[in-house]
Amino acid sequence: MKKAAAIVIAILIVSALAYVVFRLNHSNENLIPAFEEGGFNLIIEDEYITSPKSLKIENGEILLDFDTLKKYFDPSLKWDETSQKVIVSTKDRTIKMKTGGLTSFVNDGLLSLNIPIVQDEDVIYIPIEFLSDFYGIEITHVEQNNVVIIDYKKDFLHTANIIEPGAVLRSGRDSKYPILRRFDDFDGTGNSFKYQMRIFEEYDKWYKIRTWDGIVGFIEKQYVVAKIEGGTISGKEQKESLDEEKEKKSSSEAYEGKINLVWDMVYTRRSNPWSVPDMKGLDIISPTWFQLQNSKGDLMNRAYSGYVKWAHEKGYKVWALLSNDFQDAEMTSKFLKDDKAIENFTRQILAYASLYNLDGINIDFENFYQRDRDLFTRFIEIITPKLKEQGLVVSVDVNDIPCYDKKALSMTADYIMYMSYDQHWRTSPVAGSVAQVSWQERILKRVLEEEGVPREKLLLGLPYYTRLWEEKTENGAMSLSSVALTMEEAKNTIIENDAEVVWDEESGQFYAEYEKENSRFRIWLEDENSINLKSSLVHKYNLAGVCAWSMYFVSDNIWDVLYRNLKEIDGYEQWLKLNENNEYIFVY
Question: Which residue ranges traverse the bilayer (predicted)?
Answer without folding.
Answer: none
